[in-house]
Amino acid sequence: MPNTASAGSTKERYFYLQFPPMLNTSAIPAVFLLAAASLFAPGAPEGNVSGRIIPPEGARTVWAIAAKDSIHTGIAEGAFSLSLKPGSWKILIAAEPPFRNAIFESVKITDGEDTDLGEIRLQR
What we know:
Blueprint: H1 28-40, E1 47-54, E2 59-66, E3 69-74, E4 79-84, E5 87-95, E6 102-109, E7 114-121
Parallel strand pairs: 1-7
Antiparallel strand pairs: 1-4, 2-3, 2-5, 5-6
């Protein structure tokens, strides 16, 4: 709205611009402290399962299945490794033709432990 003043009037209008508050720099050290603490916080319990596929080109994927959870990983040069929650898992080696899948029905995973399935020889 334009500033209209009649003769003899002393009415004046002022407009103020309001800027957002500046970044509160005192909070920055706290953010870094929280980020650093999260690096050292204990995570969910996990164990590992690993193995070696013979022949190495016989499979490309390993699946781990437990109740409602499943996870898969690739196989590199015949070797695989998965980090899993503790419990009983079915491990499925998804073979490439002419080989057949290899299945381990109840692999027990314990927190902080490594479970090595060793050499897994795929059958034709």
